[in-house]
Amino acid sequence: MLALMLLPVPLVLVAVPGAFAGGGTRRWFGGRGESQRADAQAAKDAAAAAFYELDTAQRDLRISIETITAVDASPGARRAVDDFAALGRRIDEVSHAYITAVDAYDLDRDDLEASIASRARGELNRAKDDLLRVKGELEQFEQGLGPLLDKAETQLARLAPAVERARAALLSASNALDAARGSGLRADDLAARLAALGPELTKLNQGAGQHGVAETLQRADRVLRDAEAVRAEAERLPERAAETDKRLVSLRTRAQALWNRAAAVEPVLSELRRRFSAACWQDLQHVPEQAAESVHQAEGKLREAAQARAEQRWADATAMLSTVRALLNGADEAVSAAGDRLNRLNAVSKDPEAEIQRTRFAIRDAQRLAMAGRHTPEPRHARPLDDSVARLDRAIEGLEGRHPDYWHFLTETEAVRASVARVVEMIREDRGGGG
Question: Which residues are in coiled coils (predicted)?
């Protein structure tokens, strides 16, 4: 005790705490040194918070980028990916600087000097500021992604419903096909088309993760469209069979009727030859043979159509029935032409004046229209009307003689009226445009 009392006072004050507190006690308390340690620890905590926030923001943004790239392959999307990669490199740089600063200083050391704590605080604050700056860049970049992300999310929202609709359409098509077969219809072509959609369904089931969102959406739309077409045709198949049967019966009946009508053409031609000049009927000479040939060809096509119907080759049956109809239409027109010719020649031979007055009335009506509101008509209106008058006069002169060509007279008056009608239309168009 006496020896201790003889020591200098400052040494005693330093030695006593160590003697009671043990070797782990720090060498100083409070004051500027402890404040520097606390400031450095606060800087470390702030930098850690900034690092965590940046890491979280980067991970969230990566999900957005992956959403965009899963859907969008546009140049804008590719630029976004490149820009995100560049941001990632800057994030790596500031993160590395932060981790280096943290690893460089042990702020819990007992013998931490105030100067080291101050230096640690400065480096950690700089690391925090860099982390916050890059986080700001990340947030700005994220704002610019809005349109691309909205578009991608919209497509993703369409994905599941689109796939489900495609599956439902395939099921409906399959059910409709089963119903058609249940009624005795084979529907082999529809079955083949439905079977061809099987691989597409497999790819739909594999999902967008394997085939991409855009491709999966396109596939779903295509499957939906094709399956609905198969379903519609399968549902209509019984009706189509009934329509085909009905057309076969109707066209057979019509062909038989045309045989009878074609046989009646020859007496009509005989009367035409007896009563009128050759110019009135010579173009009808071959009508009986032509009509008979058309009906014969139609009956052959009818047999082929019936065979296609029996084999349920619906497209072939429909095409052949269309050919039959065209052949019968041609025969019908030819047969009708002979009877119509005789009727018209009979009428004009009894009273040609009615045809003449009808044509003159058309000319006079056009002339009045051409003169309306004018002292003289437009030459381009008057000239064809004058020509029409002269043409009608020549047609009337052709009726003189023992065997006049009444057919030429009829065709001429029809041509005159057609020419006059064109002039009337021209006048109305001109005045309508000028008004």
Answer: 117-144
